[in-house]
Amino acid sequence: MRAVIQRVKKASVTVNGAVAGKCGPGFLVLLCVMNEDTEEDIKTLSAKTAKLRIFEDENGKINRSLSDVGGELLVISQFTLAANCVHGNRPDFFAAASPDKAKEYFDRFVADIKQYVPATETGVFGEHMTVELINDGPFTITLDTNDLKKKK
């Protein structure tokens, strides 16, 4: 699984002119399920995302997690994070999971991360979405479960 995590002051996603999901201060997570992803990847990425300490403490040190600051989450599926741009100028997305697997794993990721951060909303899987955000920092992190598993 791959994720782009942006610390935001607020974010929202609109589908067909209606707000489908939003969050206040917290994270906007763009999530991509890859072909080779397993159940372990869901658990690994949800725990790492929820426990990331990228909010300032009382001393200005980046040392607080979402739960420490009462943060919220907006999770949006984004298969384009699987883009391979090595050959030519048109990316391919062959590494992205099939829509059925991606939807199942996306839903399971959201259910899992809600155990850590109950204030979690989503976009609409498979739909064209318009995302608005106010990035806080800006502070953006990318996570890939292939990299996270190497550390174990």
CATH class: Alpha Beta
Query: What do we call the CATH topology?
Result: D-tyrosyl-trna(Tyr) Deacylase, Chain: A
* Count of alpha and pi helical runs: 4
Q: Write down the secondary-structure element order.
A: EEEHEEHEHEEH
Features:
152 residues, six-stranded mixed beta sheet, D-tyrosyl-trna(Tyr) Deacylase, Chain: A, 26% helix, two-stranded antiparallel sheet, 37% strand, single chain, alpha/beta
Any chance you could write out the topology, listing elements then pairs?
Elements: E1 2-15, E2 18-23, E3 26-32, H1 39-51, E4 55-56, E5 62-64, H2 66-69, E6 72-77, H3 99-114, E7 120-122, E8 130-144, H4 145-150
Parallel strand pairs: 3-6, 6-7
Antiparallel strand pairs: 1-2, 1-3, 1-8, 4-5
Describe this structure in words.
The protein has 152 residues and is an alpha/beta fold. The protein has a single domain (2-142), classed as D-tyrosyl-trna(Tyr) Deacylase, Chain: A, CATH 3.50.80. 26% of the residues lie in helices and 37% in strands. The protein is built from four helices and eight strands. Strands 1, 2, 3, 6, 7 and 8 form a six-stranded mixed beta sheet that branches. Strands 4-5 form a two-stranded antiparallel ribbon. Strand 4 (55-56) and strand 5 (62-64) form a beta hairpin. Helix 1 crosses helix 3. The chain is globular. The two termini are 16 Å apart. The relative contact order is 0.29.
